[in-house]
Amino acid sequence: MTDQAVSLWAKARGKLAETLNEGAFTAWIAPATPISFEDNVFVLEVSSRFFRDYIANHHLDEIRGALADAAGLETGQLSLELRVAAEPSAQPVQQVAQEPREQPRRDAPHTRSLNVRYVFSRFVVGASNKQAYARAVAVAKAPAKEYNPLFIYGGVGLGKTHLMHAIGHEIARQQPAAKICFITGEKFTNELIDAIQNRRMSRFRSIYRRVDVLLIDDVHFLAGKESTQEEFFHTFNDLYDNHRQIVLTSDRGPKEIPGLEERLVSRFEWGVVDDVGPPDLELRMAILGHRAAERAIELPQDVRGYVARNIKYNIRELEGALNRIVAFAKVEGRPITVELAQEALRTILPAERGKQITIDLIQRKVAEHFQLRALDLKMKKRTKSVVLPRQVAMFLSRELTDRSLPEIGDYFGGRDHSTVIHACRRVTDRIAADEALRETVERLAEAIRE
Ligand code: ADP
Ligand code: MG
Q: Which of 299, 353, 291, 293 is nearest to 316 (CA)?
């Protein structure tokens, strides 16, 4: 433990205590131990693999941000390495500092919520995205002319948000006075609800109806939310009539969004609808090459091929894999080879992950531990002796499988997704207060992974 790491961590912790909710802070942040801070790499130690993965999945960016703040660095300049205490050779999860090559203006207030790394020059074009890319560039060059609204849809991690931000950056560069608003469908909804409750609708309207460019990310979030759709319908019309550019993204086409009012579907189709598909092998290789070059990393062709062949459907995962390999090579002090890449990716590649973790397995292990029947976890019973085990099982299902909240709910006797969210929060809160429960959860996670 170095003094510098200790004092930096004390500052960062103070900040995290303010920004995170109390349960999350006490359960996940407070128990971690600072180890060292050297060459802008902060090493934090946690008690188990489960713990490390939990933090990596939920709080990595917040911790990095707080540490960078405390150290007087930009977030992008600091790397965080999470190390598991008992197993010194365990693979670290690391987020490597990345230097964006081109720094778009940060001073204009409306561009502040745009990610500086999502610019056109960092977007690699291939067969699956060239149409959407060309259209995004056209919109950025001549907003509210030919394609309005621009609607981009496609699966997770395929570059929709990236393209949307790139449009915003480019317009801001060309028209520094333009008011550009980027917001997610979720945030738009929450702000609207807030405005209604606090009787601030006119303010809400004056914000959204006075922008030059409105970028709404993940607009499918509005599905089924009537009053949000109503308000958005009017916002849309207002902007459209005044020749303002609107860009929307979604996980599916306008017609396929269940619970989206017909009048919005038809508005969304007024302009142009493009999809981004999964990247082909060539594009995946090109993206890896681009990302490596950007960071001046030597990434041999065979390694590039190995990664691109194994990670097929999600560009975010592709980038994550590269980060892992680079971090692993650095920690091990070895050159980047296919063997090293295999080791580094062992835990994340499905083929090499061994057996898939199922919710059935989780239910069996949890039930066994608490001396219940797996069936008890699925029944409606709400006696104290089953409530906690059931919540733990839901929490582990959320952390250890890729199942969605509604799917998890289904596995537990058709419960609602909000019940699953509640269960996950409860477990974090209880872990915060109960050391023994933490150990139980960690041990169960290990046993399930075996
Ligand atoms: P989506 O919004 O479709 O889920 P994102 O736009 O968030 O996906 O992209 C996920 C990650 O992949 C981001 O880091 C983004 O920079 C990167 N990415 C996606 N498409 C490309 C591309 N064509 N070239 C380079 N990076 C890409
Ligand atoms: Mg997105």
A: 291
d(CA 160, CA 142): 19
Decide whether any atom of ligand 1 lies within 6 Å of the 236 Cβ: no
What is the number of the ligand closest to the CA of 294? 1
In this prediction the pTM is: 0.61
Q: Is the peptide bond before 149 cis (omega within 30 degrees of 0)?
A: yes
> Hey, what are 178's tokens?
């333009």
Q: What's the pLDDT score for residue 94?
A: 37
Residue 382 pLDDT grade (very low, low, confident, very high; cuts 50, 70, 90): confident
160 lines ligand 1 (CB under 6 A): yes
Regarding the beta carbon of 389 and ligand 1, being less than 6 Å apart is answered no
φ and ψ at 192, to 5 degrees?
Answer: -65, -45
Report the alpha-carbon distance of residue 213 to residue 270 in Å, rounded.
17
Average pLDDT, the chain: 88
Three-state SS for 176?
Answer: coil
User: Mean pLDDT highest for which of 73-87, 192-206, 235-249, 403-417?
Assistant: 235-249
- Centre of ligand 1 to C-alpha 308, Å, is 15
How many whole angstroms separate alpha carbon 49 and alpha carbon 55?
Answer: 10
DSSP string, 22-79: HHHIIIIITT-EEEEEETTEEEEEES-HHHHHHHHHHTHHHHHHHHHHHHT--GGG-E
Confidence band for 96, pLDDT divided at 50, 70 and 90: very low
Residue whose tokens read 């009012």: 261
Question: Which residue is it, tokens 């606090």?
Answer: 198
Distances (CA, A) of 63 to 9, 12, 66, 102, 297: 10, 7, 5, 25, 26
CB burial of residue 19 (10 Å; 0-12, 13-18, 19+):
exposed
Residues in the chain: 450
- For residue 276, count other CB atoms closer than 10 A to its CB: 23
Closest CA to 301 of 330, 324, 316, 281: 281
Which atom of ligand 1 is nearest the CA belonging to 133? 23
